[in-house]
């Protein structure tokens, strides 16, 4: 088992980084009436850990028995029947899913799933009808329509189920949804907190940490606790006892993207563009999200770029990132960005070096 | 559908030579010629062969009363209805019905071998085969049979009962599909052929069975039924049987493989049928026939008109005769309209002095009210967009009212309007965009990375438009879809300003499709692996999972096979599975070759 899973706090009592939030959540559940919740905060800050601990607090150990299934939803839109397949995790008390995976059909998923959950409500020990919890991930990626239908269903079925929404940025969640939830901000842990966690794990694993080692990993993790722990374990596998100048191996996809950046900078032609496309395909097949590719690619390109061009390139990256969200085939927009970059860069090279 | 715009062009020209008297109606007038031939044609093609006259005259009656209603409605429509009825006067008035008693198509059905427009050699082929089968050397499909003096038993297509109609009517009638009826027919022939002809006195008289219209099948089951039925017929029949198939469907149903004439063909050949292939009737032969009809009907159609009709019929002789008859109904107006249009087309082609020009000119400069809609294969259309053929230099640019900047100017296209090509190719817009995206970079000059950007940016816009209409359904009529298709096609044409030197390219099927497929399966697998690994419901966001867990797990995990980009490479890398590469440059159809010529 990975350390990330092994040392994840299972109950609200054991939460260390966000102990204050955990306290409040426990109070909330003990009063029996739990509102809809919206957790937001940076990636790797502990939202999911809190949610899982909260569910365990609500339903006890039963909530830990979960199964993963790919469910196909048949949705009748009036003119034709859509079939949408979605992966979901479920226990007898809760369902967790990622409706934004359904792309632009996400609104049907939201409606349909909640409707179905409302239909078969579990009955608790006292014979009272209990509510089910629906955990929706990446709510900020839901389309506007889906968020609207989410709001309607939230009101309609509030007696039978509770929603726990989870997202990175609450600014992309509509006001209407936000105001119907209790917003819980989970901020990214500070580097000190990360160091504490790493030292805690080190103690449990009986490792000797050279001074400053944990701090270096924490700095590299960009205040992402999950990443820090993963880095930590990687270092352990690579070389133990630790040395103080040990480096964390790079992520393979990031390395691959920086190769792409080098390709782009060495030659600007349709042929090279085509070669770059093949590399993009490879990343996409491996499920690397196109947004991450674009972001990383931009960072790599900016590192080697003349300051004059930086502004323009950033503009185009933003432009095509936006297009990417509007459209459905990310590769079109990724390639458009690369083509634009090539065009601008080539012009710059010709103007500068002739 | 695509016929309307050219007709509107015609209206302005006829306005000029029509003089002041008719100006009021001139804007509406073109509608009549546009709809009328389509209807007449529809009757001739879809109506039952045996009794076209009765059906069509019934249709005419209905149509004749329509304008009368409009007439009473508003004075504004007076001119319109006048035009309308004028156009059909000759047909609908009982008096004139005698004048044109028959559709010329039926009237001039060839009765002898000599009258056929088909190449002599083909006729010989058919003849030889029939002679052989009948062992009757003295005797010589309809024309030959007449010469042979043989009876023809035709499979008369029954009026189809649509399933929905049947449900609606819910009468006592049993629903009989066309396929079933066809089976019955074949069954009857197999059993009773020997009896029928001998019953009459002419014992020696010969019989030929002609099957012209094989029922359309959809789905494997019904196709298998049809196949069984046909093979049974071929193997057991004692009478010469002629089955005629058309390839026309092939280009029509690009992606829906519901009718597969090739399958039937190979099936029939497998069962021992003898195949004789017919090419489309050549323009010259059609012209000859039209001349003959003109002479016999004593109507004076100009040679140019006949030429125009012959060309626009696209090898469909029935259609050519129908449009000739239509023109002769009202010679004054239509000949003037047509002659202006031909004059235009003619002048244009004379300028560029390429005879091949006419071959696409017929569809681009198609202001004539006749002419059938051409269909293109998807690949043909893609080839047009990708090759981006343009005039070498364009004199028109000087005449442009709004001169453009040098870098925005393009020579005019050597093809139809892109929208028209798209509608002829009727593929799904998404498919077209994907194919264009996959292949366009090959056609851009390797120096012109700016062009590449323009092209890709238009495709990116097209993608956004396509996504913008989520409940797109499959009919391409959706407005946003049409616009997206137009943006994609025109973007590719406009952006590729410095085309690569022409060389042979294959069109690849979009790798994107494969990528999406393997993306989905990989995703499921990753989720499952993660779940197996953690056993708690604590999966995180998928993107985090992929960007953080996966790569680091590769280091940590038990199967520590090092940091490898190689790990990334499962799936896409090498194989181009799926569609085979297709050849755009030529060989798809003759039409394409003609374009290459110029």
From TrEMBL, chain A:
Please provide an example of a Pfam family that matches this protein in its UniProt record.
RFC_C
Q: Which family does it belong to?
A: Belongs to the activator 1 small subunits family.
GO MF annotations in UniProt: DNA binding; DNA clamp loader activity
Q: Which domain of life is it from?
A: Eukaryota
Tell me, what does this protein do in biology?
May be involved in DNA replication and thus regulate cell proliferation.
The answer to keyword Nucleus applying to this record is: yes
Keyword Transmembrane helix belongs to the record: no
GO BP annotations, alphabetical order: DNA repair; DNA strand elongation involved in DNA replication
Q: Which PANTHER family match?
A: REPLICATION FACTOR C / DNA POLYMERASE III GAMMA-TAU SUBUNIT (PTHR11669), REPLICATION FACTOR C SUBUNIT 3 (PTHR11669:SF1)
What stretches pass through the bilayer? none
Q: What is this protein called?
A: AAA+ ATPase domain-containing protein
Q: How does it assemble?
A: Heterotetramer of subunits RFC2, RFC3, RFC4 and RFC5 that can form a complex with RFC1.
Among InterPro entries, the record links this protein to: AAA+_ATPase, DNA_pol3_clamp-load_cplx_C, DNA_Rep/Repair_Clamp_Loader, P-loop_NTPase
Entry GO terms, CC: DNA replication factor C complex; nucleus
Query: Where in the cell does this protein reside?
Result: Nucleus
Q: What SUPFAM superfamilies has UniProt attached to this entry? A: P-loop containing nucleoside triphosphate hydrolases, post-AAA+ oligomerization domain-like
Q: Which residues form the AAA+ ATPase domain?
A: 33-189
UniProt keywords (A-Z) are: DNA replication, Nucleus
UniProtKB/TrEMBL annotation, chain B:
Query: What terms describe the molecular function in GO for this protein?
Result: ATP binding; chromatin binding; DNA clamp loader activity
Q: List UniProt keywords, sorted A-Z.
A: ATP-binding, Cell cycle, DNA damage, Nucleotide-binding, Nucleus
Q: Which GO terms describe its cellular component?
A: nucleus
Q: Cite the residue spans of the region called Disordered.
A: 1-71
Is this entry keyworded Cell cycle? yes
Q: Which CDD domains match?
A: HLD_clamp_RFC
- Database matches in InterPro entries: Checkpoint_prot_Rad17_Rad24, P-loop_NTPase, RFC_lid
Q: Which parts pass through the membrane?
A: none
Any Pfam family matching the protein: RCF1-5-like_lid
The protein depicted here goes by the name Uncharacterized protein
Per the UniProt record, the source organism is: Paspalum notatum var. saurae
């Amino acid at each position: 088992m990975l350390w990330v899973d092994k040392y994840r706090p299972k109950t609200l009592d054991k939460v260390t980084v966000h102990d204050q939030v955990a306290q409040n959540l426990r109070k909330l559940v003990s009063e029996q009436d739990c509102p809809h919740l919206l957790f937001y905060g940076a990636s790797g800050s502990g939202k999911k850990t809190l949610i899982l601990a909260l569910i365990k607090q609500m339903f006890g150990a039963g909530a830990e028995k979960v199964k993963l299934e790919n469910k196909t939803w048949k949705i009748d839109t009036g003119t034709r029947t859509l079939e949408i397949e979605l992966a979901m995790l479920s226990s007898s008390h809760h369902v967790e899913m990622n409706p934004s995976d359904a792309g632009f059909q996400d609104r049907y998923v939201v409606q349909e799933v909640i409707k179905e959950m409302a239909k078969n409500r579990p009955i608790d020990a006292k014979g009272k009808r209990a509510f089910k919890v629906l955990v929706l991930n990446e709510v900020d990626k839901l389309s506007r329509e889906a968020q609207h239908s989410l709001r309607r269903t939230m009101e309609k079925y509030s007696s039978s189920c509770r929603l726990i929404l989870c997202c990175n940025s609450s600014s992309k969640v509509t006001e209407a949804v936000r105001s119907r939830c209790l917003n819980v901000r989970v901020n990214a842990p500070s580097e000190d907190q990360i160091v504490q966690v790493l030292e805690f794990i080190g103690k449990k694993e009986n490792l000797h940490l050279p001074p400053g080692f944990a701090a270096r990993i924490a700095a590299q993790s960009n205040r992402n606790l999950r990443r820090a722990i993963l880095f930590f374990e990687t270092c352990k596998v690579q070389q133990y006892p630790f040395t103080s100048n040990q480096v964390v191996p790079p992520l393979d996809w990031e390395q691959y993207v920086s190769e792409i950046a080098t390709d782009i900078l060495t030659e600007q032609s349709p042929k090279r563009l085509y070669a770059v496309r093949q590399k993009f395909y490879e990343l996409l097949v491996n499920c690397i999200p196109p947004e991450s590719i674009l972001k990383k690619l931009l960072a790599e390109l900016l590192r080697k770029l003349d300051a004059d061009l930086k502004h323009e390139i950033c503009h185009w990256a933003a432009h095509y990132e936006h297009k990417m969200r509007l459209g459905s085939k990310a590769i079109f927009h990724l390639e458009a960005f690369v083509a634009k970059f090539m065009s601008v860069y080539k012009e710059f090279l010709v103007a500068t070096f002739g | 559908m695509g016929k309307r715009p050219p007709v509107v062009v015609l209206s302005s020209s006829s306005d000029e030579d029509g003089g002041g008297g008719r100006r009021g109606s001139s804007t509406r007038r073109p509608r009549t010629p546009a709809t009328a031939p389509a209807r007449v044609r529809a009757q001739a093609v879809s109506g039952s062969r045996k009794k076209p006259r009765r059906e069509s005259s019934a249709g005419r009656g209905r149509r004749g009363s329509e304008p009368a209603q409009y007439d009473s409605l508003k004075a504004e429509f007076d001119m319109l209805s006048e035009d309308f009825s004028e156009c059909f006067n000759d047909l609908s008035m009982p008096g004139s019905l005698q004048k044109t008693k028959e559709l010329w198509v039926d009237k001039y059905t060839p009765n002898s071998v000599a009258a056929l427009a088909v190449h002599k050699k083909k006729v010989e082929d058919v003849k030889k085969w029939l002679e052989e089968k009948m062992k009757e050397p003295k005797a010589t499909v309809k024309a030959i049979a007449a010469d042979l003096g043989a009876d023809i038993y035709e499979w008369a297509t029954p009026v189809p009962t649509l399933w929905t109609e049947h449900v609606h009517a819910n009468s006592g009638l049993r629903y009989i599909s066309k396929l079933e009826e066809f089976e019955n027919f074949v069954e009857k022939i197999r059993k009773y052929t020997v009896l029928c002809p001998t019953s009459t006195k002419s014992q020696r008289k010969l019989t030929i069975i002609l099957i012209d219209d094989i029922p359309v099948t959809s789905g494997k089951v019904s196709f298998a039924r049809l196949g069984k039925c046909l093979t049974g017929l071929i193997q057991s029949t004692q009478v010469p049987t002629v089955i005629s198939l058309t390839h026309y469907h092939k280009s029509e149903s690009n992606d829906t493989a519901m009718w597969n004439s090739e399958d039937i063909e190979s099936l029939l050949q497998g069962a021992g049928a003898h195949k004789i292939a017919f090419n489309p009737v050549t323009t010259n032969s059609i012209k000859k026939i039209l001349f003959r009809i003109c002479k016999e009907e004593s109507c004076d159609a100009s040679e140019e008109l006949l030429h125009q009709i012959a060309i626009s019929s696209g090898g469909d002789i029935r259609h050519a005769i129908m449009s000739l008859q239509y023109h002769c109904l009202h010679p004054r107006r239509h000949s003037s309209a047509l002659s202006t249009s031909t004059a235009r087309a003619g002048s244009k082609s004379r300028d560029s002095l390429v005879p091949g020009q006419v071959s696409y000119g017929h569809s681009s400069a198609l202001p004539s009210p006749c002419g059938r809609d051409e269909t293109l294969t998807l690949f043909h259309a893609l080839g047009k967009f990708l090759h981006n053929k343009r005039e070498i230099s364009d004199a028109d640019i000087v005449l442009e009212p709004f001169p453009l900047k040098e870098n925005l100017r393009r020579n005019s296209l050597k093809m139809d309007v892109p929208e028209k090509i798209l509608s002829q190719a009727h593929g799904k817009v998404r498919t077209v965009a994907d194919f264009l995206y996959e292949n366009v970079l090959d056609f851009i000059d390797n120096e012109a990375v700016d062009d590449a950007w323009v092209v890709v940016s238009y495709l990116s816009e097209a993608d956004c438009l396509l996504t913008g209409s989520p409940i797109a359904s499959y009919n391409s009529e959706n407005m946003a879809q049409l616009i997206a298709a137009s943006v994609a096609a025109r973007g590719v044409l406009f952006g590729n300003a410095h085309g690569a030197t022409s060389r042979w390219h294959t069109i690849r099927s979009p790798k994107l499709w494969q990528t999406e497929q393997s993306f989905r399966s990989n995703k499921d697998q990753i989720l499952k692996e993660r779940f197996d690994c953690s056993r708690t419901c604590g999966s995180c966001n998928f993107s985090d999972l992929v960007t953080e867990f996966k790569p680091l797990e590769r280091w940590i995990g038990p199967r520590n096979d090092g940091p490898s980009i190689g790990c990334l490479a499962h799936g896409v890398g090498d194989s181009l599975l799926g569609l085979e590469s297709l050849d755009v440059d030529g060989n798809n159809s003759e039409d394409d070759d003609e374009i290459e010529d110029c």
